[in-house]
Design goal:
Length: about 300
């Protein structure tokens, strides 16, 4: 038997697909439900691949499912390419075969409500044979989801991406100050960051976001009084609308009404600041996958044409 064939004869596409599902869902039981197979079938596929490589692909935590090991991340990146190629081979006899397959997408929770639904609709129209599985994450979660192989793509701000991740710009924006009606800033055309010195500040308490905001303020010699730290952008907006303080944010919904019905005013900043980019990011090991290239291209087209 040919030595090259012997290297992979113990592996099957079915096993690889089962293991990919476990990686995507972070759980053997969740993967089994999604595949509509038994849990032992998924466990057997994982065991077969780990036996083939002689190395673990996952770390197991009884209450938290499975997480890819560094070696597992490398294997799954190549496995996704293999499954893409298998899709292509399977469709060779199909006239005008189109890009097809599954893509796992995570989106920063702060911008997901404003961009994700219309973007998903756009992708359904333009790439009908591509199935998008999506989930929300915080800024740190977007980076870890890509690094750990739980997501193929991430929509997130250009913050905290390491050297193993790459991103292309979907759109750019400037930070704005949020204030309640009746605040002195509310009738201003612009406000300088230095004017936030001594102001009560509602801070979005996510490490990357908080570090970025505090860095901008520090560079402008502004020292606000942090009166609240919140995890939720809508809570931040509602606290501002009710007069507890002001906020500095990039995420500006199209409505001027907070969740409790009170108005919040967005005021542009007069400082000459670099624009913050919103990216579609992926792992460098995966950036050449045709299906991801197609999805990223359509995302860029959606934003350039004002669809999201």
């Amino acid at each position: 038997m040919d030595i090259q064939y012997q290297k992979f004869r113990s592996l099957t596409l079915r096993q690889i697909a089962y293991v990919l599902a476990a990686a995507d869902h972070g759980s053997v039981s969740a993967a089994a439900r999604w595949l509509n197979v038994s849990q032992p079938s998924v466990s057997a596929a994982i065991a077969a691949l780990e036996r083939h490589y002689g190395m673990p692909l996952f770390t197991r935590q009884p209450t938290q499912g499975v997480t890819l090991t560094p070696f597992g991340i490398k294997v799954m990146a190549e496995a996704r390419l293999l499954c893409d190629q298998a899709q292509t081979v399977a469709a060779l006899a199909t006239p005008d075969a189109k890009i097809a397959g599954d893509v796992s997408l995570c989106c920063y929770e702060g911008i997901a409500p404003f961009v994700l639904p219309r973007l998903l609709r756009w992708l359904q129209r333009r790439l009908p044979d591509v199935s998008i599985r999506f989930f929300e994450v915080d800024l740190e979660g977007a980076v870890s989801a890509l690094s750990q192989g739980r997501a193929d793509l991430a929509i997130t701000y250009d913050l905290g991406l390491g050297g193993d991740l790459t991103g292309s710009t979907l759109y750019s924006l400037q930070p704005q100050i949020l204030c309640p009606e009746g605040h002195p800033f509310a009738k201003r055309r612009f406000v300088g960051l230095v004017e936030l010195d001594g102001e009560n500040l509602i801070l979005l308490d996510q490490p990357l976001s908080a570090q970025y905001v505090m860095g901008l303020l520090s560079a402008s010699a502004a020292v606000p009084v942090i009166v609240a730290r919140v995890r939720n952008i809508e809570l931040q907006r509602s606290l501002v609308a009710n007069g507890f303080g002001v906020a500095l944010t990039h995420t500006v919904p199209p409505t001027a009404t907070a969740s409790d019905g009170k108005r919040v005013i967005n005021v542009p900043i007069s400082d000459d600041l670099a624009e913050q980019r919103v990216l579609v990011a992926c792992h460098r090991q995966s950036e050449n996958r045709p299906i991801l290239q197609a999805v990223r291209s359509e995302m860029s087209a959606a934003f350039s044409e004002g669809q999201s």
